Amino acid sequence: MKIAFNIFLILIIVFLGFMLYKSIQDPIEFNAEKTKRENAVIQRLMDVRSSQEIYRLIKGDFAKDFETLISVLQTARIPILKMVGDKDATDGVFSVDTTYVNAIDSINSLKIVLDSLPFIPYSGGKRFSITAENIEFQKTMVPVLEVSTVKKDFMGQFGDARYSMYDKSFNPKDVIKFGDLSKPSLAGNWE
């Protein structure tokens, strides 16, 4: 009887030790995974923003979908304007010389992989939501853009609301995005 009781106590001690370990390890794993995944998503959003800025240089507005964005960036050229003439001359005569560079060269120099641009990292193939419009802002028509995703889309097993007990600011329904459809801004909400 005494041996059975000792074995039972040892099992309880092992179980409680394991539970203590898990209670310490779970928040550490969650925070490490959250940071890693959020950083990857933010980097991809920054790549999308840079790509859209190059697209705007070429077309004058933003791409409404990723297929158009990728297609234009793979084939189009960016105009570079150079003003030739003496700025101090009294006659004010100058000329504009336009040269072109391939957009794909600019994309490659930024180390952006166009094929993976639409996809949210760690999401299993889910795509970013993209909305591009033209709005009137201060009596001028301006292009606006918003690209976003919900945190639960890339948090995997950690996308459950119960993980908010490890980080009070974490809400799996929060949106991570850049841009604004009500004003011309490409700022990210992580900045």
Per-chain topology:
Layout lengths: L1 H58 L6 H10 L1 E9 L8 E9 H7 L19 E9 L2 E11 H4 L20 E5 L12
Antiparallel strand pairs: 1-2, 3-4, 4-5
Description:
By secondary structure, this protein is of the alpha+beta class. The chain has one domain. It contains four helices and five strands, in the order H-H-E-E-H-E-E-H-E. The protein has helices spanning 2-59, 66-75, 103-109, 151-154, and strands spanning 77-85, 94-102, 129-137, 140-150, 175-179. The strands form two sheets. Strands 3-4-5 form a three-stranded antiparallel sheet. The chain is elongated, with a radius of gyration of 26 Å. The model has no long low-confidence stretch (mean pLDDT 91).
Largest sheet: 3 strands, antiparallel
Number of strands: 5
Given helix and strand content, the structural type is alpha+beta
The dominant shape is elongated
**What level of helicity do the residues show?**
40-55%
